[in-house]
Structure prediction request, 139 residues.
Amino acid sequence: MSRLFGSMLLAILGVVVYHLAQKFQPTSVSPFLILSVAYTVAAVLSIGLHWLLPFETVPMQNFALPAVGLGIAIVIIELGFLTVYRSGWNIGIAGVFATAGATLILLPIGIVVLQEKISSVNVIGIGLCLLGLLLTAKQ
Prediction:
């Protein structure tokens, strides 16, 4: 299996475990306590994997600011999904809505700021995904 598809399968597995773990969090527990436990586990696991599977390292100033941004984003995402599921969203729809919404914001950023290219087939696919999102919203 190529690295391209292997990495996507890893991401998909992570998203599935993530949404299941989020959905089953008890509503009586503070979201910040849940996040603290989750981040402690994530930090220990990340440090252990870094020691086990070291990558080439670069000076911290090369990645510190984006890493801080990632940390802030993670807290926002986690808190967002905790509240989404606590407010009653279905597990099969919440992730689709969040991903579609983020895609609608990231698409023009990718095209205008990052100079990424999309084909006419991509545009048709995006349109079909949006149609699917509208159909999913109808209950």
Notes: The longest helix spans residues 64-86. The chain has two domains: 13-89, 91-139. Residues 74 and 80 are 10 Å apart (CA to CA). The two ends are 38 Å apart (CA to CA).
